[in-house]
Write a structure and sequence with these properties.
Layout: E1 2-6, E2 9-13, H1 19-25, E3 49-52, E4 59-60, E5 71-73, H2 77-92, H3 109-116, E6 133-134, E7 140-143, H4 152-160, E8 167-169, E9 176-178, H5 195-199, E10 205-207, H6 211-218, E11 224-229, H7 231-234, H8 250-260, E12 264-267, H9 268-289, E13 295-296, H10 301-310, H11 324-340, E14 347-353, H12 357-361, E15 377-380, H13 381-390, H14 412-415, H15 422-436, E16 454-461, E17 465-473, H16 475-487, E18 494-498, H17 516-532, H18 542-552, H19 558-564
Parallel strand pairs: 1-5, 11-12, 11-14, 13-18, 14-15, 17-18
Antiparallel strand pairs: 1-2, 3-4, 3-5, 6-7, 7-10, 8-9, 16-17
Helix pairs in contact: 9-11, 9-15
């Protein structure tokens, strides 16, 4: 431990701790732009400059280590002038005229920092570095003109997700962040996970919005518009309206979407329960009949695109199940259309997802088992919040709404899909009971919960033996699992992989900011809802039983295979 003094306050920290981290222990806020906790500290933006007695030059607090007896000043005239100058230089190359129309307006870190530092005019004018707008991807828009070269997106893409779809290229005034050779994100091995969006401090990387298309469908009297939402949405939407992270706002969200004008409100959780029945049956069949093992979950489209690009030879390990929202879309345009007497060509299905990769997924040609596109539009949690604000709805003042039958009933097993380990836990609850015919005494599989990058468990199942499972979240951890499968050391039966760190609760379409504490709180909300529900096992959902009796027949049957299962594409790297 070392003791240092920051703005007159003594603080004791472990040796190697940075001045930035030490300052936070005594509630001194040092501003940053390029810094990402536990991921990136490069001192590139020069916004966190501080004065260290004995050093001639100001030092970046995010990389300067604390040492015994250090005396630091974070708010004297010299420091304030230097910080302001650094931000003024960044602002001088930024398209400030676009602020009012920027998707990050009022949630922009540069905008807030400029305000905090009292910047009221752009002192430096002249040529701007410029750049192009890349909007060819179905999920992500990259506006090079707004990039401040903080490199946070580059670090997340390379170090956390191990995809490396974007790089820092060029030098000096011509430095830019983009895919190799200036290509579009649509033309490289990008998984469209959107983690770059979550860490971008400005509006240089955003989701491709589908808000206007959805409004157009709602106002078209010839269309019957259905909305569905993923479990992670209800645990995060409230943050857009001032609620603390981890506040479950299911009822208010349902009331809000009805006010928006949707004809029916269904729940992706219903299809999550359905996924467990199909996926669990597929797993048991592979174990009993010698199918390809380990079997890997397939409900995360960013993960699917990752394996298609980087491990196409391992595609047979994937479950053939579609993701839950695609299943619900297919059933809406078949089962529900038939029951309601509606022509499926007049039905528009809108999914509210925490995920930007879902926008790509719904456009895949394989996602049309009903003869129609399963899901027409995907909007993110942030886009739904924008629609609610556009409609002038007082979110906090809403009474609780409800889901519509017959595709709105769900169990606790379905709601935990939004957290890493949730799909595995839901699957184990059903697989164990279906395989043994016995009721589980404890439904909480703690071994697969939490934010450890890779989690493992051994579950004894009568008649089968020990079932070995693993859970990975974040594509960097997925890569480790894939390498084990390739070298033959992955001795598992079943693996859950989620593209985003923490699972869907921190998907690329969720409210910003996102950190581990927020991930925990959002996941905690879903586990609490699971505990509060009367039915916590997918195979006990009455509506699931009914749809098999009335429509699907049996799990893995001909109709299920046609509507609820899919195939994948070997894409390779480029």
């Amino acid at each position: 431990m070392v003791t240092l003094t920051i703005d007159g306050q003594k603080v004791q920290v472990e040796e190697g701790t940075t001045i930035l981290e030490a300052a936070r222990k005594v509630n001194v806020r040092i501003p940053t732009l390029c810094y990402l906790p536990e991921v990136q500290a490069i001192g590139a933006c020069r916004v966190c400059l501080v004065e260290v007695e004995g050093n001639r030059n100001l030092q970046p607090a995010c990389v300067f280590p604390a040492s015994e007896g250090l005396v630091v000043h974070t708010n004297n005239l010299r420091v304030r002038r230097a910080r302001k100058f650094s931000v003024e230089m960044i602002v001088s190359d930024h398209p400030m005229d676009d602020c009012l129309t920027c998707p990050r307006n009022q949630k922009c870190e540069l905008q807030k920092l400029a305000d905090d530092l009292g910047i009221r005019e752009v002192k430096f004018t002249g040529e701007k570095s410029g750049g192009q707008i890349d909007d060819l991807s179905p999920s992500i828009v990259r506006d090079q003109t707004k990039c401040i070269l903080c490199r946070r997106c580059v670090t997340v893409c390379k170090e956390v997700q191990t995809v490396s779809a974007i790089y820092t290229q060029g030098r000096g005034f011509k430095t830019r962040v983009e895919p190799a050779f200036g290509r579009s994100l649509n033309d490289v091995s990008c998984t469209l996970c959107g983690q770059c969006i979550l860490v971008c401090p400005v509006g240089a990387i955003t989701e491709k919005e589908n808000i206007e298309e959805v409004w157009h469908a709602i106002f078209d009297p010839s269309k019957f518009v259905v909305i569905q939402d993923a479990p992670a949405v209800r645990a995060a939407l409230g943050e857009e309206f001032g609620y603390p992270p981890g506040t479950l706002v299911t009822g208010k969200m349902l009331a809000a979407v009805r006010r928006l004008g949707f004809n029916r409100v269904f729940d992706t959780n219903f299809a999550a329960d359905l996924t467990i029945i199909e996926e669990g049956s597929e797993l048991l069949k592979r174990i009993r009949e010698g199918g390809v093992l380990p079997m890997i979950t397939s409900c995360s489209p960013g993960w699917i695109k990752f394996i298609e690009h980087f491990y196409p030879d391992l595609l047979p390990h994937l479950s053939t199940c579609k993701s839950p929202h695609q299943m619900l879309g297919a059933l809406t345009k078949t089962y529900y259309a038939e029951k309601a007497g509606i022509d499926p060509r007049d039905i528009v299905v809108v999914s509210v997802m925490p995920c930007t990769a879902k926008k790509f997924e719904c456009s895949r040609p394989e996602m049309a088992g009903s003869g129609y596109r399963d899901v027409d539009y995907v909007i993110t949690t942030r886009e739904l919040a924008k629609m609610i604000r556009q409609a002038g709805i007082d979110f906090a003042g809403l009474e609780n709404g409800y889901y519509d039958d017959p595709l709105g009933e769900y169990t606790g097993a379905a709601t935990i899909f939004g957290a890493t380990g949730g799909v595995m836990e839901a699957a184990l609850r059903t697989a164990c009971e279906v395989a043994t015919g016995k009721t589980l005494e404890n439904l909480d599989f703690q071994a697969v919960r939490g934010l450890d990058g890779i989690k493992e468990a051994v579950v004894p199942v009568d008649g089968i033996g020990n079932v070995k499972v693993a859970v990975a979240h974040g594509l960097g951890n997925a890569r480790k699992i894939m390498e084990r499968i390739k070298d033959g050391t992955a001795d598992y039966h079943f693996i859950e992989i989620m593209c985003c760190p923490g699972g869907c609760v921190s998907g690329g379409g969720q409210p910003v900011p996102v950190n581990d504490e927020i991930r925990r709180l959002r996941a905690q909300a879903l586990y609490q809802e699971d505990k509060n529900l009367k039915i916590r096992k997918s195979h006990e959902n009455p509506s699931i039983k009914r749809i098999y009796e009335e429509f699907l027949g049996q799990p893995l049957g001909e109709k299920s295979h046609h509507l609820l299962h899919t195939k994948y594409t070997a894409r390779g790297r480029f």
